[in-house]
Amino acid sequence: MKNKTFKLSIVLLCMIFLLMGCNNGPSPEEQMYETLEKVVKVEKDFEEQQEPLVELEKREKELYDEILTLGMKEFDQIVTLSKEALDIVTERETRINNEHESIKASKKEFQKVDSFISEIKEESVKEEADALVSVMNQRYESYEKLYSSYTEAIGYDKKLYEMFQNEELTLEELEQQINLINETYEKVVAANEDFNKLTDQYNNAKVSFYKSAGLEVVFEEKE
Predict the structure, then answer these.
(1) Model confidence, pTM
(2) CB of 152 within 8 A of CB of 184?
């Protein structure tokens, strides 16, 4: 039994060496595909933050609206609601930071494609790959702007709910802070629209590259 196993191992080893001789490993296009799909997996944590963030924003808006309906006679309730809103803002901050870390990890993984592009022989395929990289880098830059505006808005939100807990708060101070918040969220909305647009462009560029490279990839349409 031992000799039989040993002989079988030698045969398998010889076959492996023969196969290695016939195959020099994956092509640059295939290596690029593997990296791009890893990027998708790395951004899974980014995707997982989306729904909770929306729910937190919705709940915070409800608290904010409720606070605005209360008068100074109900100051204790205003303080209670403001503290609850502050907790939500802190949770939003944690979520957006998790999202940011996911994007940074995605960028680190994505940078590996540069070494594969230089090895692509067909010029048209290389051009598709370069276009894909260009769009993705714009997407990363766009996200940094979005993250910066969102964290700035969070800082203003925190200050607002702290102000609500000050019995000496004036209407003028409140209006100034609310205007500041509204202006910042306008930047957030614009940055988010730009990021989403670039995400769509990147996904289209990726499909185009896969087809140009002759990679047999089955694409799933998202609802």
Answers:
(1) 0.84
(2) yes
